[in-house]
Amino acid sequence: MEFRRKFAAGEIIFEEGDVGDCAYVVEHGKVEIFAGKRNTRVQLATRTGGDLFGEMAIIDDEPRSAGARAMTDTTLLIITRDQLNQRIERADPILRMCMNVLLSHLRDTLRRLTQRNTLEFDRPLINDEALSQALSAIRLEQALQTALDQDQFELWYQPIVDLQDGQIAGYEALIRWRHPERGLIYPGAFIGAAERCGLIIPMTRWAFQQACTDLGALGTDRFVSVNFSGKDFAAPDFLAYIDATLAALDRTPSQLKLEITESLLMHSPETARRVLKALRQRGASVAIDDFGTGYSSLSYLHSLPADTLKIDRSFVQSMLVDESSHSLVRSIIGLAQGLDMTIVAEGIEEPAQGRALRDMGVQLAQGFFFARPAPLAHIVSLTEQWVPKSLAGSQDNSGPLSL
Ligand code: C2E
Ligand code: CMP
Ligand code: CA
Ligand code: CA
Q: Is the shortest distance between the CB of 289 and ligand 1 below 6 Å?
């Protein structure tokens, strides 16, 4: 694979109208960007060490908007079409739309400068699919803002059960959006967008405040777990907000568990460590969510002030049919036990999964088998009438409550 190209002083790198195959970063030397052909060229700009050029044709798939010529002996580092495109595909659709619009303005200006017919190049600024993605992202973000302003969110709870005696040990708070036209919307459809546009911060704060309010109704001897995202932790006033909310609602942190995902920890390990430590000092408990889906090292986990590990439901659901998931679950349990952490297994849908996990030493579990997430009032009455579910399989369900 070719990584660099060298050009002698005066050599043309490409001409306006050429098909572009890559973008360049100037490593050594100097490059002139020019409009027009070799003999009538008008200098638009010069590029030296560290500068990028030739990106436009790769981004918008149009011919080269200008020519480029080495002014001195020059070495260029190649950025391939693939390298650029992969990043662009991952970028936010609204940013992509802005980029396309900027490029089309620039091309338009260049055409006027060289006095050519603008119509001959006219084409839509952005393809239909990209446009509809960008528009739906904008609409979703606006709808989320309205949802916050008009109090359309609800906090539901899912019981977390003790596998030894079948009693409810705590609850996980899970946000729901009651849309006036579209009905109930699950977080999978909006958390990502809220994270991208920053609305996740007021949204999580709303959930945290609501969970603190609901703590009273859920009973003082049980914990409530609240989900947080990376942006929440990074906000400079995060701890001050937590303290102020607890004080305003007269709650102690000991009933609260904060859930953060393993991937969040990997993205900003230092912030995570600092904030988690402060939370533990206040007496709150901290759980690492979706454990097993990221790539935490044992030493990193050991250095974190977390006290609970949640095993991701993908492993729980495949562990009885797939030997490698089974051994992964077994090693996560061993790891947590070695670090003296509590383990919560997620996504138990069948008694056999609960039995296997209990026999491997898992203390707590949540899943549709025990109870689905539901609104507060429903959960309060469910708790009052709670009867532990038997984990016995269909072959041996003879004994009463043979957990
Ligand atoms: P999570 O934190 O991993 O939450 C557990 C998800 O698994 C919930 O989905 C729950 O309904 C679902 N679940 C529980 N038991 C079972 C089961 O037995 N089978 C199956 N198939 N699913 C089960 P939900 O409520 O749709 O939430 C999805 C994700 O959205 C959560 O995943 C969490 O990452 C995020 N989320 C939810 N509420 C909040 C919130 O208030 N703030 C933030 N930042 N994220 C939230
Ligand atoms: P591309 O169109 O691929 O090839 C020509 C390159 O010249 C273009 O990408 C930009 O990197 C650069 N370019 C075009 N117009 C200008 C300008 N007005 N000023 C500076 N650089 C430009
Ligand atoms: Ca969670
Ligand atoms: Ca989870």
A: yes
The DSSP-derived string for 186-243 is: -GGGTHHHHHHHSTHHHHHHHHHHHHHHHHHHH-TTSEEEEE--HHHHHSTTHHHHHH
Which bound ligand lies closest to the C-alpha atom of 66?
2
- 196 burial level (CB within 10 Å; 0-12, 13-18, 19+): middle
pTM (two decimals): 0.77
CA 342 to chain centre: 25
Number of residues in the chain: 403
Q: Which residue has the CA at smallest separation from atom 37 of ligand 1?
A: 174
> What number of CA atoms fall less than 13 Å from residue 143's CA on the CB side?
17
**For residue 204, which ligand has an atom nearest its CA?**
1
**Comparing C-alpha atoms, which of 215, 226, 169 is closest to residue 364?**
169
* Alpha helices (H) in 91-199, listed in sequence order: 93-113, 128-149, 191-197
> Ligand 1 pocket check: which of 153, 191, 229, 376 to mutate, most ligand atoms within 8 Å of Cβ?
191
Residue 395: is its pLDDT beyond 60? no
391's tokens: 């984990």
CB contact at 8 A, 16 and 66: yes
Question: Pick from 346, 354, 91, 383: which is nearest to 227 by CA?
Answer: 346
Name the residue with the closest Cα to ligand 1, atom 42: 227
What mean pLDDT do residues 324-341 have? 92
C-alpha 296/C-alpha 327 separation (Å) is 17
- Considering every ligand atom shown, identify the ligand nearest to the alpha carbon of residue 53 and give its number: 2
Task: Write out pLDDT tens, residues 58-96.
Answer: 999 999 999 999 999 999 999 989 888 888 888 888 898
| Closest of 158, 170, 161 to residue 391, by C-alpha | 161
Q: Hey, which of 22, 53, 60 would you mutate to test ligand 2's pocket, going by the most ligand atoms within 8 Å of its Cβ? A: 53
| Digit-coded pLDDT (tens) for 300-315 | 777 888 999 999 999 9
Contacts of 354 (CB under 8 A, 6+ apart): 163, 348, 365, 367, 369, 370, 391
